[in-house]
Amino acid sequence: MKILLPVAAIFFLSFILPQTGNPLRNTKWEAPNGLVIYFTPSDTVKMLMDNKLLTAAQYKVKDSLVIWRDFIKSDATCDTSIRGTYIYKIRDSLLSFKVLSDRCEERADVMQTLVLSLE
């Protein structure tokens, strides 16, 4: 019994702690033009327009940084091996990004102009 309680506490905390470090997880944000960015409960972010998937990417949050890598190859995405690193800011239910580094100029140009409101 003495061992069971600490093990149960560690198990419980292992599910809580990772989610508290990512304020983007499981949120939807919308741009004025109708573009929706959905950060799923996993490590996937989806960009949708009129409920149609435009592209998807893997993302990772660390502190105020988002690391983004497209994983659907299309005309609207970058090479799937290129990662972009952005500083994100949430203020007054608005999400914005500042490019820290990204060799994909098209994605960087789009990301730094986005101002998204929480759905």
Account of the 3D structure:
The protein is an alpha+beta fold and 119 residues long. The protein has one domain. Helices cover 20% and strands 45% of the residues. It has 2 helices and 8 strands; from the N terminus they run αβββββββαβ. It has helices spanning 4-20, 105-111; strands spanning 27-30, 36-39, 44-49, 52-62, 65-70, 83-91, 94-102, 115-118. It has an 8-stranded antiparallel barrel. A hairpin with a 2-residue loop joins β3 and β4 (52-62). The chain is globular, with a radius of gyration of 17 Å. The model is unreliable at 4-19 (pLDDT under 50).
Which features would summarize this protein structure in a list?
single chain; 119 residues; alpha+beta; 20% helix; globular
Categorize the overall geometry: globular
Number of helices: 2
Q: Encode the helix/strand succession as letters.
A: HEEEEEEEHE
How many strand elements? Answer: 8
Distance between the termini: 45 Å
Helix content: 10-25%
Which spans of ≥5 residues are poorly predicted at pLDDT below 50? Answer: 4-19
> What portion of residues belong to β-strands?
35-45%
Largest sheet: 8 strands, antiparallel, barrel
Question: What count of structural domains?
Answer: 1
Find the structural class using helix and strand composition.
alpha+beta
- Strand line-up in the sheet with most strands: 1-2-3-4-5-6-7-8
- Give the overall average pLDDT: 85
